[in-house]
Specification:
The chain is mainly alpha-helical. It has six helices and three strands; from the N terminus they run ααβααββαα. Strands 1-3-2 form a three-stranded antiparallel sheet. The longest helix is centred in the first third of the chain and has 20 residues. The mean pLDDT is about 90.
Length: about 130
């Protein structure tokens, strides 16, 4: 991300807007629930109740808030079927799938360095 201060041209203004958007999106998706939802959806389409079952410990409210945020950022799509009761399904968009690949890399990194992290944490105690 760009962190320099710019003053002047339209190109510099575009960089500022891009930097601001990047920070906003990162702030939105860098929470445990969003990352777990992205991982749970993967390349599948899931109903709300299936997602809630997949993401252990998430409340109805937190799932709703995070799904709305993912939709707002264009990372997930919501499809509502006109049934009684309404059936709602969620799937990742192309940008959401690309972000999932990044999430997978973070998970791989965690598995690779798990022992190192645990050893470092033990040195500091509980």
């Amino acid at each position: 991300m760009v962190t320099k201060q710019f003053n002047g041209s339209a190109d510099e203004a575009d960089l500022r807007r891009a930097d601001s958007l990047a920070r906003e999106i990162f702030s939105d998706v860098a929470n445990k629930w969003a990352l777990l939802i992205i991982e749970a959806l993967g390349d599948r389409t899931l109903r709300f109740s299936e997602l809630r079952d997949e993401v252990e410990g998430i409340s109805h409210k937190m799932l709703t808030q995070n799904l709305r945020m993912l939709e707002r950022n264009g990372l997930a799509e919501r499809k509502v079927y006109p049934t009684v009761p309404p059936r709602v399904e969620y799937t990742l968009t192309q940008p959401g799938l690309a972000l999932r690949r990044t999430v997978d890399l973070i998970c791989d990194w965690t598995h690779e360095y798990f022992g190192h992290i645990e050893t470092a944490r033990h040195r500091f105690g509980p």
